[in-house]
Amino acid sequence: MSDDLQRIMAIDDPYLLLREVTTRLADAQQEVTELARLRRRVVQDLHAQGLSYSQIAVEAGLSRGRIHQIRHTGPAPEGAFLGRGAVIVATPLRWDEEHGRTVVAVDDVTSGKRLEDLARSYGLDVASEHVSVNGDIDLNRDGLVVVCGPRMSQGMWDVFAQDPVLLWGGSGAGPWTVTDQRTGTVYRSGHDTDPTRPYDVGYLGRLPRPDGKGSLLAIAGIHTQGSLGVVQLLASDLNALWGQVAEHHFSTLVGVEYDPKTGEPQSVELLTPLYRHDEETSA
Length: 283
Prior knowledge:
The strands form three sheets. Strands 1, 4, 5, 9, 10, 11, 12 and 13 form an eight-stranded mixed beta sheet that branches. This protein has helices at residues 3-9, 14-48, 53-60, 64-72, 106-121, 154-160, 224-245, 277-282, and strands at 86-92, 94-96, 101-103, 125-131, 144-147, 166-169, 177-180, 185-188, 199-208, 215-221, 250-258, 265-270, 275-276. The longest helix has 35 residues, at 14-48. The chain is of the alpha+beta class.
């Protein structure tokens, strides 16, 4: 029996006991989920290296049937791309000058909801919150997935500025762009070209938190349709993304053709490689 369990069992106050047991059960369930995800990942990695299930079973002291079961059941390893145990999906609030009130863009709501559904499909607990109208949000927390561009938040501007390859540029008065500093290519939204076209650019990256004690997943579009396109990419290709960058810091740009009436993505493609930042800084 663990010391923590003994401490909880010794609590006399029934209400405090109920709170402690509920919290401990939630934490334990998250641990069980992540251990099962890690176990499946190890089996998959060993099998991908050429070992048979029988060989893995012998070395691990388990039956071949048990190894095969682990490989094909339980939470998928690629769920760790979004976070471990629990994630917080944050989307921005905006100020409506015409009506003098705080609003949320429909596309941001859609992006947030789809991210929440995706995370839950991988066995992750999900909470949601907003980046304030002033751009304030506590970025020094585990499991953050932030859908917010640099113009909406100084904190996110500072996070994006750590990217060694993809550089945001622009101002409140002019169109925003993202420059691939490796190739010199400047990417613009079709909304900001003449003639305009239903095309946007989305950003996806895992970047260091301001406190340097972890990472956050950053999603942004030059316009909101770009963010929707990134979310669609995650929903369709998370396994491939995980296979290339796992939990490393990285960034990439996504081109999004969308329906001009609904804003829904119609086609999504990677515009740049998935730049691993450790490889860029060591180059």
